[in-house]
Amino acid sequence: MATNAANFVPAAGIQEAIPIWKKIDWSEEVEQGIYKDWGAYYSRRDREDKAMYYYDKALELAPEDFVTLSKRSMSKRKTAKVESALSDSRAAKDMSKNMNKESAFINLEVCEGIYQHNELENAKAALHENTQIFKGNKIQAFVERLIVVDENLKDTCGDGLSPFFLENEKHIYEIKKILDEKMMVDNRPLWKILKEQGKCDVLSIPDIEEEILSPLEIARRKRAFEIFNQIYIDKSWIDVLFLKSLKSNKNLLMDEFKESKDILTKLTTSEYEIVMKFLKMNHVRCPLYANRYQQYPNKEALKKFQEAYLYRVQYQTRRTMLAALRTIRILRAKSDVNRLLNVVESVMGDYVVVKTHRVMPWKFEFIAEVYNTVALTLSEQYTVPNNFKVTKDNALLTLLRHQMDTVKDFPKFKFGDRSTHQEPDLTDPNMLRSRRMISRLEMRMRFAKYSIEKCYLLYQIANIHLKSNRGDECSFAAHKAIEECNKCNSLLWSFLSHILIIRANAALHKFSRTKACLISALSLAEKLNSPRLFSFIDTCMACNKAEYQNKKSSFQINASRRESKLSTVSLQRASKSSMISRGELTRPHSLSSLVME
Question: How far apart are CA 74 and CA 86, in angstroms?
Fold first, then answer.
């Protein structure tokens, strides 16, 4: 009785408003017809989500309505839900067959589902089977679809397939091997599999290795993606790129909008997946190699076109490289080091890394020319200024062009003035910028082939650490740069790396380490046969020696003052004890009196 009474207890809160048409006591057949009509209405206007919703409502009232089920499969096919659409159409076919109401429309829907599932052979077999079942005008739709499927099979397995296999035979076997390994199911325990592979078999959750792509591979995939879209959707390919960018657009998916962010993320992701599924269907029906063969059936014409395109790219690349060299030399003549480093980073980090030796046969010569020019520009700023005094404060750091630490003036907090508020999660933009730059340079280090390029990258990493007052990291990166300099026999980059170590040690007032590094830099200046650098290092050694002497003399003065204080205190205690022994002063009898005295 208690359970029956609980069922009649009204729910708490305000219930959802009931529509007017629901207040009328419709029969289930009429209500199902309403839902079907609404589903058809929204389907005609390409609002398939709404259409599927109302088709689901209609099927709840009449689960054996195979017509509604086939219409729902059509809506699912339009939204690229291929597997679910095929299962609905097959279920509708079985229902109609059991009721002896077999329909050509429903069977054609099954064939369409198989065709969109990229099973061209099975679709052809199903269409042939239906031409034997039905007669008269009902066969016409199956015959027209058979023509389309036959043309797709000609494109995929036609004359364009054999040249593609001959060009990519090696890659095809490698990909097949990878796919076979993925298809294999190993039911052994995970620790046995890892032990056999020579990996750690102790971790219960194995580490997932992140795939790190080179800049050249990233550029190749990006270009292949653009070509793929341009071939299959022509001028609308830019819309696909825009939709892809929306998936990670911070202006659209803002963290502040907590409710709409999840909805928009789901919407952009689902729409992009729908577009890509349809593009893959088009690719299966007419692959890229068939498209190329249709455009250039003559091999000689294709080869001629490829050579002409290669020559155009080589010529444009040569012109771009000469312009970049001209800009670098002009900036060196102006001694504009900061702009020079920015130009070199943009040219070498964004343009040259995506060029192959086929497009740029002179790649190594260009890299060596650019980095040697940068090294010469950096070394030219190390000169002894006129009327320079070795004895002034921070003479060594001034000579090395090291920026002194400046005390930041923090604004005082004023109530009502938001510019003076200190946010708790405020981050330093300079620190974020340096971290991004270091990660970019480290990524380039992974794929750098030449030692002179590694010298430049390690020097830049060390310089960024030095600007952020991280002396140990700077010295570590500079030592690695010196090792790379020894491999490529680059004395100038080795000298510049020594200068960074000297600056890091001088900023921390490590005189002995600075002196040892200055001695090795002096030998490098002698090998470079540069009187300017030799005199610069000689002046640096004099500054380091003068600062060491000043520091030593200040320590001696402080030590003598400390000794004089100790000697006066000891004399006072000795005179006091002698007076007590002579009886001129009485010794205190308790600890409290001694403390008071």
Answer: 9
